[in-house]
Amino acid sequence: MLGRLTLNTSKSSSSLLNTIENSVKGEVNDLVADIARKLNIHDFYSAHLLDYCEGYYTPGAIANATNDPHKNVTRCSNHTAMFHFDPTSAIQKELKPGINLTDLHWPSAIKDAVHAVEIASKIMFVLYCIGVAATGLALLGAFLGVLSGGRIAALFNNALSLLAMLALGIASAIVSAIMSKIVNEVNKHGTDVGVTANKGKTFLGMTWAATGLMFVAAIAWIYEFVTFRRQQTSYVFEGKTGRY
Questions:
Q1: How far is it, in rounded angstroms, from Cα 21 to Cα 185?
Q2: pLDDT tens-digit profile of 173-182?
Q3: pLDDT band (50, 70, 90) for residue 210
Q4: pLDDT of 124-150, one tens digit each?
Q5: Is the dihedral of CA 85, 82, 140, 162 positive or negative?
Q6: Which end of the chain, N or C, is surrounded by fewer C-beta atoms within 10 Å?
Q7: Are residues 75 and 53 in contact, defined by beta-carbon separation less than 8 angstroms?
Q8: Is the C-alpha dihedral spanning 25, 26, 31, 34 positive or negative?
Q9: What is the C-alpha separation between 175 and 204, in angstroms, rounded?
């Protein structure tokens, strides 16, 4: 997020000093926020799988005794397949004419890190498409399999579940690696210009949970196949010996 300045002051037990500290923090951060907005720089940029969103923290970017900021999204880009978020380009486009990120000492290491994972992010998108499609077919196949039963249905659904698990698992691993690289590079080189990055823990939790569920589904269909075959073998054996 840009346009955010945090002052690390020592804690004081005096209420008067705390009041002065909060007042100074508020004035400094309001000044920084005003400068950032005059440059058309937003407080935060959130990258998603198909787009990115931007906005400001309200009522202010820094939390204090009287201020509990929350995100106010002002704009999101259009949904785009194979989307790859480049914060350098996004911010540069919003700056007023005559102002360049190099003038603001924007770290080139951030741009290099983002470009380094561009191909990986596109592969990740394709894998997510395969994983989502296979998951949808697996759900449909599971419904039909419950109605019809049989080894063929179990094998078919197991294959779909395995395909979905592999696609989602590889995509999850790629997105985890991308997040770690980008966050580490931004936090390493962006501190001097007030830029920080955080992982999308909710998204990571959801993508790995989906992978785990498809793994459980694959195991369940293998179990269904084995138990169905055993039932058939037992029935044939008893039929040959004359027991029904």
A1: 31
A2: 999 999 899 8
A3: very high
A4: 999 999 999 999 999 998 888 777 767
A5: negative
A6: C
A7: yes
A8: positive
A9: 8
Contact of 55 with 69, CB cutoff 8 Å: no
Q: What is the pTM of this model?
A: 0.74
- What length is written for the chain? 244
Q: Could you give the angle at the alpha carbon of 211 between the alpha carbons of 144 and 161, nearest 5°?
A: 30
- Write down the residue that tokens 């063929």 correspond to: 152
CA distances from 85 to 31, 32, 100, 162, 214 (A): 29, 25, 19, 30, 29
